[in-house]
Specification:
Blueprint (H helix, E strand, L loop, with lengths): L7 H15 L2 H6 L4 E10 L2 E10 L6 E7 L14 H9 L2 E6 L16 H16 L4 E11 L6 H7 L5 E5 L5 H15 L4 H19 L4 H8 L7 H10 L5 H6 L5 E8 L5 H11 L5 E10 L5 H4 L2 H10 L9 H10 L6 E2 L4
Parallel strand pairs: 3-4, 3-5, 5-6, 6-7, 7-8, 8-9
Antiparallel strand pairs: 1-2, 2-4
Helix pairs in contact: 1-13, 3-14, 4-5, 6-7, 7-8
Length: 349
Amino acid sequence: MPKRRGWRWTAWVMAGVLVVAAGLTGVVWQNTYALREEKVSLWHGGKLLQGVLARPDRGPGPFGLVVFVHGDGPVDATHETFYRPLWESFARAGYASLSFDKPGVGGSEGDWLDQSMEDRAEETLAAVRWARGRPDVDGRRIGLWGASQAGWVLPKVAARDRRLRFVIAVSPAVNWLRQGRYNLLAELDRDGASGREREAALRRREATLALLGRRASFAAYRAALGDAEGMTEARWAFVTRNHRSDATADLRAMAGTPLLLVLAGHDVNVDVGETEAVYREVLPASSLTVAHYPNATHSLVDHEVEDSDLRLTLTAVLAPRRLYTDGFLADQARFVRRPDSGGGTTPEG
């Protein structure tokens, strides 16, 4: 969800000074959630995964359950606490939330960069099976929530487990290669790149795609392109493994499972127009609900907040529930309360 930035250490120090000056009572309250969190573990593929089961703060259950599927990167179970406002909103709707550290993150064994989207789907199915064995989970009311890269995982899981009650897809792309091109051009436009810079970036992209197409080694990539621009050998292997991902066939296979598609108006990562068009073409209108948030970024944070380093950090510390764009948390809770309601378009946030 909210993106990582190199400024974080400095901004947190600044925020800490302000927090101390303002007093801690309100901050502690803002970062206290109506949840009962339990550390849990799961053995999958010979490796231990560790995570969190966050149940509503009252009642014995059994509760419905939302299983979280992360986006890209080394994400821990709480997404550095940014999932907790979502967990609380689901708890108020009578649902628990389940989330695991990615392999190699936190207490989980393995390496998330060694995974394919198929591997991630199998891991999610294992989490669902594990949850159905819990007496405090209502196995008839289990659904999925996933963001960004999870868009290539969620349909695979829902196509294989037809018992899932719903899917919530936040800022998903459809095709890995088209998404990459859109993201590149959107960032160049945002940064005011010149025509020459744009042409150079597109040439580099075409050269990279040619290398991926013949499954070239990282050494060959470095030899052909020189500056790695942040690419590592492990990341290159991950991209090589997954760059042909396309969600269309899996979306068709999961058709009929109620799905909430969440789209942001300031998304430079995903072409939301293409995503919506494909989802509407492939999925039955009766099972698809589309929610638009015109003021939000890819991470569903208001773009005015995300564009200010200091404002983003202060909001995260002092009022974390307000990080997300207006209506987003309430709409998530409303959807899981009535997952079998008809499709349509929610009021814009």
